[in-house]
């Protein structure tokens, strides 16, 4: 078979970039193959450098909620760039962005912009430690919060032991300060707080865990997190990097009617440009430099292009009742999928909220990451490659959430279901 341009370029990329990629999931390692290289992307489609087009359900891993390269956002970036690309001194769009976030998310009284979700969660953790004058944090097994040292920590061997470094290069001393507990397990959480509560600065949680597919909290679980942190004087940090500005104006906290102390954002608020933000209670946020003693900074933070792209995207979502439309598209996809898989009679679980979804090949209820790990991975791989071959690009990993955008039409979704049906027939 003649080599295509993507695989030729991947061979070159591997010579000059570790693994050929700038972020590991892009290497398609979880599905045992090689990635394609993108030539361009528009609307619901992404086209590779060999000229093949796919219906895309990744949307750059979440930011592209209007679809790829929407004209309004691209035009706004061009306009703004002519006036300056980075200033490093305050400019009005930073204030507008802060006001917009505060307006949409009631728990946020003050907010600071940064450049990635990783920076947002890392900074929120430092702030919580500085505010509470405590060092330990609690995170959940299967939740991903970016790659800062305190958060690249996996569960230790016993429920109450401290975490283990989840990457070479993370000092054990950092991992010792991160307690990793199973998600959706109230008893273990109570035990951890009974033993360590006075030393815990914060719980950080993905508001709906979406880095192990898509997992939902059991009824009352998020309320317990709120209540237990209040009981012990710890802070509650909602990581809404993925869910924020995607599931509604106020993200999961809006859906669940909860008030975390701090929240982390990214993705959608940057319109596809590098962005992150963290915000919350004013008394906590005012611990940040230059007002308070907790240092946090960024040369490019509040970048005018990212602010303009993000604000334009938020404006479009609001103008077009975007969240309601995304939910309708998601529901359409879900009902078609249930019909198709019920007819097929194969075990599966389909979790969806609004425009985020995950299909699992398992008959287990998905309560936490242990259930996610028990799905049929071989089947997933075959399904992934079968769909890709037929022009449907799903996340190249069974642990990722799929995203529908406002550029997806019902007929895109129906075509996708037809592809699913054809692929499942063969495997
Ligand atoms: N938190 C969550 C919930 C995420 O999904 C991610 C990335 N997918 C991050 C944090 C890290 O964001 P970034 O990749 O922008 O650093």
TrEMBL record:
Homodimer. Pfam families: Aminotran_3. One of its GO terms (cellular component) is cytoplasm. Keywords: Cytoplasm, Isomerase, Porphyrin biosynthesis, Pyridoxal phosphate. This is Glutamate-1-semialdehyde 2,1-aminomutase. SUPFAM superfamilies: PLP-dependent transferases. InterPro entries: 4pyrrol_synth_GluAld_NH2Trfase, Aminotrans_3, Aminotrans_3_PPA_site, PyrdxlP-dep_Trfase, PyrdxlP-dep_Trfase_major, PyrdxlP-dep_Trfase_small. PROSITE patterns: AA_TRANSFER_CLASS_3. One of its GO terms (molecular function) is pyridoxal phosphate binding. HAMAP family: HemL_aminotrans_3. It comes from the Bacteria. One of its GO terms (biological process) is protoporphyrinogen IX biosynthetic process. It catalyses: (S)-4-amino-5-oxopentanoate = 5-aminolevulinate. Its EC number is 5.4.3.8. Belongs to the class-III pyridoxal-phosphate-dependent aminotransferase family. HemL subfamily. The keyword Cytoplasm applies. Its cofactor is pyridoxal 5'-phosphate. Pathway: Porphyrin-containing compound metabolism; protoporphyrin-IX biosynthesis; 5-aminolevulinate from L-glutamyl-tRNA(Glu): step 2/2. It is found in: Cytoplasm. The modification N6-(pyridoxal phosphate)lysine is found at residue 267.
């Amino acid at each position: 078979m003649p080599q295509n341009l993507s695989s030729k370029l991947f061979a070159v990329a591997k010579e000059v970039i570790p693994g050929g990629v700038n972020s590991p999931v892009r290497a398609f390692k979880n599905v045992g193959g090689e990635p394609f290289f993108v030539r361009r992307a528009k609307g619901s489609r992404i086209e590779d450098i060999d000229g093949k087009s796919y219906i895309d359900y990744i949307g750059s891993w979440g930011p592209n909620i209007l679809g790829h390269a929407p004209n309004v956002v691209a035009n706004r970036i061009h306009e703004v760039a002519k006036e300056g690309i980075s200033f490093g001194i305050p400019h009005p769009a930073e204030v507008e962005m802060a006001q917009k976030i505060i307006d949409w998310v009631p728990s946020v009284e003050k907010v600071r912009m940064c450049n990635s979700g990783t920076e947002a969660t890392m900074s929120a953790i430092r702030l919580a430690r500085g505010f509470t004058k405590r060092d330990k944090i609690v995170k959940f097994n299967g939740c991903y919060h970016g790659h800062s040292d305190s958060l690249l920590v996996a569960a230790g061997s016993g429920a109450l032991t401290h975490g283990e470094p989840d990457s070479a290069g993370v000092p054990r001393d950092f991992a010792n300060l991160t307690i990793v507990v199973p998600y959706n397990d109230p008893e273990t959480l109570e035990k951890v707080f009974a033993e360590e509560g006075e030393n815990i600065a914060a719980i950080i949680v993905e508001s709906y865990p979406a880095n192990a597919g898509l997992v939902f909290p059991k009824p009352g679980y998020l309320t317990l997190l709120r209540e237990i942190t209040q009981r012990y004087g710890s802070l509650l940090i909602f990581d809404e990097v993925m869910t924020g500005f995607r599931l509604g104006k106020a993200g999961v906290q809006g859906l669940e009617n909860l008030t975390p102390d701090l929240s982390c954002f990214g993705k959608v608020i940057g319109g596809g440009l590098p962005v992150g933000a963290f915000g919350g209670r004013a008394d906590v946020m005012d611990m940040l430099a230059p007002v308070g003693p907790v240092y946090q900074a960024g040369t490019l933070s509040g970048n005018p292009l990212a602010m303009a792209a993000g604000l334009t995207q938020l404006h479009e979502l609001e103008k077009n009742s975007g969240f309601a439309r995304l939910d309708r598209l998601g529901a359409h996809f879900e009902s078609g999928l249930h019909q198709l898989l019920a007819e097929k009679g194969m075990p599966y679980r389909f979790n969806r909220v609004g425009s985020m979804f995950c299909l699992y090949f398992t008959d287990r209820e998905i309560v936490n990451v242990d259930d996610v790990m028990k799905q049929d991975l071989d089947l997933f791989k075959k399904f992934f490659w079968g769909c890709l071959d037929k022009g449907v690009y799903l996340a190249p990993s069974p642990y990722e959430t799929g995203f529908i955008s406002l550029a997806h039409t019902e007929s895109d979704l129906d075509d996708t279901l037809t592809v699913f049906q054809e692929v499942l027939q063969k495997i």
